[in-house]
């Protein structure tokens, strides 16, 4: 969201009598209270019949400014129609009149008048030292941006930032930072966009500039949308929309409704998306906002296409294409042209579709985020036209284009959700390979899209991400681990399971993702209700076993090791709880198999072997903290769990930090990289919107009572060589699933740090059953069992008990995640 206005004179001393109303309206405009400022400016105008020419014109300029910000461009031009008297020539008033007039003409699509008006403003700035010349730089930047010249726009915004700082104009400074954030979004430099936007917020907050704060929320929301983090995007966009409505920033509401709708659309909430798009369309029509109309028509066209209403989609698409010609920015034409090509391909008009896609791919102004979709659509078109070699070429090219864009995102936090944008590219290419009976290659390419951030962070990714040189031999991996690997890929139309044993790889087709997800959700709810799933023979548990596991039954030896590489809603689901049909009564799959969750075949290729531990094994035990607040009460059995675990390690081979010693800073200070086993006993939090803000809740330092959380982002920075990290707390695994990355939270952070295995919980764990489970597990580890065997044995001890702990709620919360040796190990 761009902003052009700067309020000159904001930093002068108290105004003389007669300007009080004007100054009050100006202050409210700074705060972003557009409706209030508009009313005050009008009241001041009504009482200035005998005021000076300067005051009357300052009020006109202020009212025009407000109208432009509200999208009422015709009203702004009406206010500026007369010329100011000669006494005001070449000063702030005349410069501002030309500046806001030029912007209003531009937004109405009257480009010749906009150019003429702004040229006059440039000439006036050459003759004067008006503070309004900083606003001119902002306006010129906006026009460059909306005309598609992003580099020129960035240059103008940097100049306006310098101008603002030289004059100590904080409002213009915040505005310029905001606009630099928007141009960074246009360049698809998302890390940079968030940095500029946050800097703008800091300055705007200092002067209580509410309108700018609303617009920075907008920028941040759209940045998260483009990064693939639709939930966080929607949160920011909705906050901005509420703010815009309160402030009277109607033109902002047009864009915010569109973008909120896009986030809803990408989250699968199509009805809510349609409501937002139609509201945006109505507002844009009332404001004669052609860019807003374009966005609403384009988004409605995409929605209709997804709903298979192709005739209506074509109508909306053509309307959007006509509107895209506004401003001579050909990058806006990319989306409707892409959809036009897809509609032609749907009709089997392959050559016409091919022509559109090839033209779009050749255009330098086609954004990278559109380009890989163009190339993917072209590949699909060639596939439909039975031109297999061309289809494969373009599928590969689309993946390469996507990967280049992904590599431009540097921060873990921003890179984690990014694969959501390109998951369909990998899935479509895999579908093509399967159709051509190349199932093994399809598996290899799907695997290239998994655990990418984790793999890069631990130093395993050394070559082109999409290069076949990074393929692993699945059967060799299975043979090395003496295991069967079940690799899942869920899709909107159909899903797949690759079952890999040491001697064969088989592909099975599964139902679509939504059907599987419905049964997973039902069964999860039953488990969390503490249902005795085995005794009631839960139908969802049986269905999921029959659907997800039974097809590969012949490759699953009794009591064998199984690695699950899940996808989508299967992340965060414990396969051990599936019910295996039997002649008597069904039993849980954990009784037939030793199951571990993995991130990718490539990670498993370097996973450590699970031989019995040799030599002294050091334990770092942190927990039983002093309750930091009423939200995290003392865990009654935490001290018991710690005492039980300590018994399995000699005194010289364990370090226990409890109560007041169990503060967050104690973890890095204890040199965690020196321990084979690390165990936390505490509360835990899982942040869905910001998974790296998930935390282990520990004691608060005496002098810093608010610093009682050990965050995932801090955990990830401490290198580990542990055989096993156990997070004995609620939601240690996390609650947020990212496409291609899996579930991200505390467990992910410890894997990122280098742990070979991590045990985390999928839901709130029982303070009564957990000490029993952990005591059993460490007893098995003491006898030389691998982490997988030890955890399974402990779970089976609860399952085979006669009490309430036999229910999955108590033993299935904890899941084992396999790590890998980093390239630096």
Secondary structure layout:
Blueprint: H1 20-31, H2 34-46, H3 53-69, H4 73-79, H5 92-107, H6 111-127, H7 133-146, H8 150-166, H9 170-186, H10 190-206, H11 210-226, H12 230-247, H13 250-266, H14 270-287, H15 290-306, H16 310-324, H17 334-346, H18 350-362, H19 368-384, H20 388-407, H21 412-415, H22 419-435, H23 439-448, H24 452-457, H25 474-481, E1 483-489, E2 495-500, E3 505-510, H26 513-528, H27 533-536, H28 539-548, E4 560-565, E5 579-580, E6 587-588, E7 593-597, H29 601-605, E8 619-625, H30 638-646, E9 654-659, H31 666-669, E10 677-681, E11 683-685, E12 695-697, E13 709-711, H32 712-715, E14 724-728, E15 736-738, E16 742-744, H33 746-753, E17 757-761, H34 769-782, H35 787-799, H36 808-811, E18 814-818
Parallel strand pairs: 1-4, 4-7, 8-9, 8-10, 10-14, 14-17
Antiparallel strand pairs: 1-2, 2-3, 5-6, 11-12, 12-13, 15-16, 17-18
Helix pairs in contact: 1-2, 1-3, 2-3, 3-4, 3-5, 4-5, 5-6, 5-7, 7-8, 7-9, 8-9, 9-10, 9-11, 10-11, 11-12, 11-13, 12-13, 13-14, 13-15, 14-15, 15-16, 15-17, 16-17, 17-18, 17-19, 18-19, 19-20, 19-22, 20-22, 22-23, 26-28, 30-34, 34-35
How would you sum up this structure, described in words?
- There is one protein chain.
- This protein has 36 helices and 18 strands.
- The chain has 825 residues and is an alpha/beta fold.
- Helix 30 links the parallel strand 8 and strand 9.
- Helix 19 packs antiparallel against helix 20 and helix 22 packs antiparallel against helix 23.
- The longest helix is centred in the middle third of the chain and has 20 residues.
- The chain is globular, with a radius of gyration of 31 Å.
- The protein starts with 19 loop residues before the first helix and ends in a 7-residue tail after the last strand.
- About 2% of the residues have low confidence.
């Amino acid at each position: 969201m761009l902003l052009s206005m700067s309020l000159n004179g904001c930093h002068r001393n108290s105004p003389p009598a007669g300007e009080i109303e004007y100054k009050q309206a100006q202050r409210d405009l700074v705060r972003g209270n557009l409706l209030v400022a508009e009313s005050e400016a009008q009241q001041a105008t009504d009482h200035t019949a005998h005021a000076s020419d300067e005051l009357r014109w300052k009020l006109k300029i202020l009212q025009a400014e407000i109208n432009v910000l509200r999208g009422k461009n015709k009203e702004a031009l009406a206010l500026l129609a007369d010329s100011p008297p000669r006494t005001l020539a070449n000063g702030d008033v005349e410069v501002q009149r030309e500046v806001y007039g030029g912007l209003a003409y531009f937004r109405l699509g009257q480009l010749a008048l906009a150019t003429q008006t702004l040229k006059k403003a440039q000439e006036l700035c050459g003759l004067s030292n008006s503070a309004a010349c900083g606003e001119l730089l902002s306006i010129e930047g906006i026009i460059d941006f909306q005309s598609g010249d992003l580099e020129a726009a960035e240059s103008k915004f940097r100049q306006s930032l310098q101008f603002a700082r030289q004059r100590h104009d904080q409002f213009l400074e915040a505005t310029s930072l905001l606009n630099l954030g928007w141009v960074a979004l246009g360049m698809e430099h998302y890390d940079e966009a968030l940095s500029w936007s946050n800097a703008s917020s800091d300055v705007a907050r200092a002067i209580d500039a509410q309108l700018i704060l609303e617009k920075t929320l907008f920028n941040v929301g759209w940045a998260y949308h483009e990064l693939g983090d639709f939930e966080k995007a929607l949160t920011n966009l909705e906050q901005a929309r509420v703010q815009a409505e309160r402030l009277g920033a109607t033109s902002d509401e047009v864009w915010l409704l569109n973008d909120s709708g896009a986030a809803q659309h990408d989250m699968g909430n199509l009805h809510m998306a349609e409501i937002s798009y139609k509201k945006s369309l109505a507002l844009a029509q009332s404001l004669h906002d052609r860019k807003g109309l374009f966005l609403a028509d384009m988004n409605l066209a995409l929605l209709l296409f997804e709903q298979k209403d192709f005739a209506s989609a074509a109508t909306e698409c053509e309307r959007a294409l006509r509107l895209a010609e506004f401003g001579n920015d050909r990058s806006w034409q990319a989306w409707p042209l892409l959809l036009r090509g897809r509609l032609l391909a749907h009709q089997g008009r392959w050559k016409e579709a091919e022509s559109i896609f090839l033209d779009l791919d050749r255009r330098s102004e086609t954004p990278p985020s559109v380009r890989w979709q163009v190339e993917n659509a072209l590949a699909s078109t060639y596939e439909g036209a039975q031109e297999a070699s061309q289809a494969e070429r373009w599928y590969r090219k689309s993946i390469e284009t996507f990967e280049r864009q992904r590599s431009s995102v540097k921060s873990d936090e921003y890179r984690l959700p990014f694969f959501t944008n390109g998951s369909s590219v990998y899935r479509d290419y895999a579908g093509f390979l399967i159709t051509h009976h190349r199932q093994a290659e399809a598996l290899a390419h799907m695997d290239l899209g998994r655990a990418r951030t984790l793999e890069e962070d631990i130093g395993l990714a050394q070559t082109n991400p999409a290069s076949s040189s990074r393929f692993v031999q699945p059967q060799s991996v299975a043979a090395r681990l003496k295991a069967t690997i079940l690799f899942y890929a869920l899709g909107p139309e159909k899903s797949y399971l690759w079952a890999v044993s040491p001697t064969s790889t088989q592909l099975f087709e599964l139902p679509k993702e939504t059907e599987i997800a419905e049964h997973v959700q039902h069964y999860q709810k039953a488990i969390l209700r503490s249902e005795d799933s085995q005794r009631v023979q839960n139908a969802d548990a049986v269905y999921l076993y029959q659907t997800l596991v039974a097809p590969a039954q012949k490759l699953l030896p009794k009591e064998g090791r199984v690695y699950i590489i899940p996808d989508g809603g299967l992340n965060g689901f414990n396969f051990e709880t599936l019910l295996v049909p039997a002649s008597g009564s069904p039993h849980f799959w954990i009784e037939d198999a030793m199951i571990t969750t993995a991130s990718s075949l490539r990670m498993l290729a370097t996973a450590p072997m699970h031989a019995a531990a040799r030599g002294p094994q050091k334990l770092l035990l942190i927990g039983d903290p002093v309750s930091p607040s009423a939200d995290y009460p003392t865990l009654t059995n935490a001290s018991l769990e710690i005492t039980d675990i300590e018994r399995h390690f000699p005194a010289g081979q364990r370090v226990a930090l409890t109560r007041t010693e169990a503060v967050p800073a104690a973890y890095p200070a204890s040199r965690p990289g020196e321990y084979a086993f690390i165990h936390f006993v505490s509360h835990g939090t899982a942040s869905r919107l910001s998974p790296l803000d998930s935390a282990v809740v520990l004691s608060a330092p005496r002098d810093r009572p608010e610093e009682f959380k050990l965050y995932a982002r801090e955990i990830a920075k401490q290198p580990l060589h542990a055989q096993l990290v156990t997070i004995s707390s609620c939601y240690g695994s996390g609650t947020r699933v990212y496409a291609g990355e899996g579930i991200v939270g505390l467990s992910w952070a410890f894997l990122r740090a280098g742990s070979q295995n991590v045990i985390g919980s999928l839901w709130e764990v029982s303070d009564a059953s957990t000490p029993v489970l952990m005591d059993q597990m460490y007893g098995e580890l003491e006898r030389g069992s691998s982490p997988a065997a030890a955890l399974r044995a402990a779970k089976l001890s609860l399952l085979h008990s006669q009490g309430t702990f036999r229910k999955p709620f108590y033993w299935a919360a904890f899941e084992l995640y396999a790590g890998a040796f980093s390239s630096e190990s």
